[in-house]
Protein: 2-isopropylmalate synthase
Amino acid sequence: MTDQNNDRVFIFDTTLRDGEQCPGASMTLEEKLEVADALDALGVDIMEAGFPIASQGDFESVSEIARRVKNASVAGLSRAAPKDIDRCAEAVKHARIPRIHTFISTSPVHMQYKLQMAPERVLELIASSVARARNHVASVEWSAEDGTRTEHDFLCRCVETAINAGATTINIPDTVGYTTPDEYRALFEMVRSRVPNADKAIFSVHCHNDLGMAVANSIAGVMGGARQIECTINGIGERAGNAALEEIVMALKTRADVLPYKNNIDTTLLMRTSKRVSAVTSFPVQYNKSIVGRNAFAHESGIHQDGMLKNAHTYEIMTPESVGVSKTSLVMGKHSGRHAFKEKLKELGYDLGDNGLEVAFTRFKDLADRKKVVYDEDIVALVDDEIANA
Ligand code: KIV
Ligand code: ZN
Structure:
């Protein structure tokens, strides 16, 4: 029996499965092992290591990760087919806590065109696939693919069937990134209140970012009673990606006053993990990406830099150290003001006095108008020239 009122939220990382499905982000076995080690150190509760039936390489990497990971539960994905489930069971069997994650589509459009199956057949397959998975392992997750576009009465019947067959986690994915926060929250409230055996499973969110709402939707789902969040490092994943782990975790930490949900992530490892995933996938992190983008703790405008120098709370809602960034950076550019320029000179070892400062500041502004960013070396050259010609 699961108490959905408790405040512990499980972090299910799918960087190695849904993340790897991102065009251009495939990883070798060695790279996957490196990421798996980083995720385990980060403190994820469950890592989805791959889709064992997809290829021999995927099977081997899931199986190697299952043997190697010390703390997290290791999951493999499988369709609702006996050969998928048995292959998945074989791959995860050496994990400390093996999990089989089986799924089938439940929306009208997927059942009609993709599966070409009647709803009653889908229900039969849910029962048989979950029961088969439960014969292999104690931890079985069932997902209603395209759950947010599924008709509500049918979704409730599917969830009830999966739980009766032994599913311990029920995931309702927003497969195409279509839902909104209010709608997703209400969906979990509706299913949990209507399905008679709902309290026997943990509910899970899995959001894609097609409309840029994956993180907001994930958190709304938790407010609706879900207690597992599926996400990826840097938000990599199919199309526009999945909900970004680092954003979810830092939102929960920074707004614990209104989001009182606990998890096990060591947030000081977020930047390092992001860099490692970016390096092995050759997938760059956008400069202005929340939490781990290179500008996430950088300030250029004079007003902001002045505020930051007086008190960091003026323009930072979390410390850079809390996500593993050594310090805030005040980027020197045409928007920078006298206060930041003076601090920069101090940091570089110069004390020019009031007059010298004014002259150097005018030359700096001149230069900044011509260059996007003025580097420390530019300032040193400018000041040394000023001193030489004084
Ligand atoms: O987006 C999705 O629906 C999925 C499922 C396989 C869980 O990735
Ligand atoms: Zn997905």
Remarks:
- Residues 18, 103, 143, 145, 171, 173, 175, 206, 208 surround 3-methyl-2-oxobutanoic acid (ligand 1) (CB under 6 Å).
- The first helix runs from residue 29 to 42.
